Amino acid sequence: MNIFVCVKQVPDTETKIIPNSDGTFIETNAIKWIVNPYDEYAIEQAMLVKAASSGSTVTAVRVGAIKDTEVLRTAMAMGADDSILVETEDNLDSFMTAKALKGAIEKSGKTPDLIFMGKQAIDSDCLQVPSILAQMMNLPSVSNVMGYEANGNTITLKREVEGGTIEIYEVAAPVIAACTKGLNTPRYPSLPGIMKAKRKPLAKHSLADIGVTADDRKVSYSNFELPPEKPPGKKFDAMEDDTQLQVVKEVVGLLRTEAKVI
Amino acid sequence: MANILIFTELSGEHVKSVTLEMLGKLSGHSLDVVTIGKIADESKSELARFGASNIHSLKGDKLENYTPEGYSQAIKNFMDGKSYDYVFAGATSLGKDLLPRLSGMFDAGMAADVVNFTFSGDEFEGTRPMFAGKCLAKVKIQGPKPHFVTIRPNALGLTDSPTAGSGNLSEQEVDAGEIRALVKEIIKGKSGKLDLTEANVIVSGGRAMKNRDNFKILDELADVLGATVGASRAAVDAEYADHSMQVGQTGKTVSPSLYIACGISGAIQHLAGMRTSKTIVAINNDPDAPIFTKADYGIVGDLFKIVPILTQEIKSILG
In the prediction, which pLDDT does A68 show? Predict the structure, then answer.
């Protein structure tokens, strides 16, 4: 099987985000970049499927605004056989990203059987690329996948929706699965894996190579700013047993009369 | 004035509150509503009261439950020959899944998870959180229309004095086309409560809850408030709570009227996911916990003592 896994490089979740001076994006100098957390589940699932069906290959694909291939190397250290980077300086919108991924997958010369990706990137939080890519490639897709099981040609995917409800999908490959937490436990890259990853093939393309142009842009962002800070709140000390009831009464009173939320 | 179609998903036969929020905020535009399935009379009058002109209820084979392919093809078929400038939907699990697929069918742009917006004539400009709410940005859509927008539930709020529309209901049979990814089964969540992303009140627990059992005291508080229970990543990683309960950058971003954080220190990725809550109460025994910087009302104390008192106190007032 030809398995593809799409990955993104995002700021670490502990990063304090600071808009740049003209508000066109954020300050990116001091950021620690990580594999998008949801993509780790996608990479792991690709490895599990590969292990279960001999002769399969896993290709990691990334469309990147930061010239740094660390994330693809991580994917290869986790076991991906090769990878493709579509280099771009720009912050692409979801449509351009999907088009670039499609182009990169097509350029590999392999017809995908399975495409795994994270359900969302935790930077732009759009949740659009998997569905748009599926539409562009005329493939079925299932989002928010937290369960995967293959039985012959039938793949059973669990999609989690509101209130812990789970929809169970049945589909035949090829399919795009957008993965979330709970699907598996991503492995850590092993030291030999990291060493091997350095020698694995990494193909590079420009956006122009795969036919994505500025005209493909559908969404533009501006005015990046920090959310408004609230004025400091009220703080009550209830460490001592004899103060607790009084403090709680006061807070409940404020919730009713000041905040008017209960 | 723009020609706008609002997709509303149904919970049973009822529309979700985010649909009414959108209608209220979009007042002054030409507003049609489309849904798949039968809509209750009560919901129909609500839609009319909030400004819907035409309400289209679609039905057809293979549309009994949601599938991305079936719903998107059905709506695409419904929209053929009509000229909507915008399609809006709530940024629910369904909306977040459906609209990108639909936008892909039209080769058109989409702004996701918008929390506020303005129109200048018929040009939309939205505000949306980025990096899980650590910053905000303006978003504009370009290229051929229709343009697609999803709106975060609870973000716009319900307008007090909506302008009513005629609310003409029409039913229509549509073709869902070929569906490759079929839903075989739906396993209902046990809570039966509103999802975190739609909840008006949330009670959340952190690592200081110590174990899964202790979440019971949060359930009790949640019950008296009609709240949904959430958790921090630390609590989820420690397996005190399920991932569906996680609030924060790698969980759910929420904006309830009231958020009660119990034993949550306030890691930056948690604060990002809940800071837009209208009122925040924090209970923590560490007076320097970062959560207190975001709290409207902070209680420095032992949550295992404070929470049960809080439950009793609220019960006595509301009961």
Answer: 66
Res. B19 pLDDT band, cuts 50 70 90? very high
Element (H, E) at B56: strand B54-59
Query: Residue B167, by phi and psi: left (phi above 0), alpha (psi -120 to 50) or beta?
Result: left
Pairing of strands A82-87, A202-206: parallel
Of B249, B279, B287, the CB nearest to A13: B249
* Nearest CB partner across the interface for A244, out of B138, B298, B301: B301
Q: Which domain holds residue A184?
A: 2-216
Spatial distance between the Cα atoms of A76 and A199, rounded to a whole number of angstroms = 10
A97-126 average pLDDT score: 97
Residues A91 and A25: beta-carbon distance below 8 Å: yes
Q: How confident is the model at residue B219 (pLDDT cuts 50, 70, 90)?
A: very high
Residue B163 half-sphere exposure toward CB, CA atoms < 13 A:
8
Architecture of domain B201-318: 3-Layer(aba) Sandwich (3.40)
pLDDT band per the 50, 70, 90 thresholds, residue A248: very high
Partner residues linked to B279 by β-bridges: B258
pLDDT band at A30 (very low <50, low <70, confident <90, very high): confident
* Backbone φ, ψ for residue B88 (5° rounding): -105, 150
For residue A95, being part of any structural domain is answered with yes
Euclidean distance between the first and final Cα of chain A, in Å?
56
Q: Which two tokens stand for residue A89?
A: 């300086």
B250–A122 CB contact, under 8 Å: yes
Is A110 within the bounds of a domain? yes
The whole-number average pLDDT for the span A248-262 is 96
| Cβ atoms A78, A51 nearer than 8 A | no
Domain B3-173 has CATH 3.40.50.300: no
**Residues of B in Cβ contact (< 8 Å) with A165:** 186-189
Start and end residues for every CATH 3.40.50.620 domain found in chain B: 3-173
Distance, in angstroms, between A112 CA and closest chain B CA? Answer: 16
Judged against a pLDDT cut of 70, whether residue A66 lies above it is answered with no
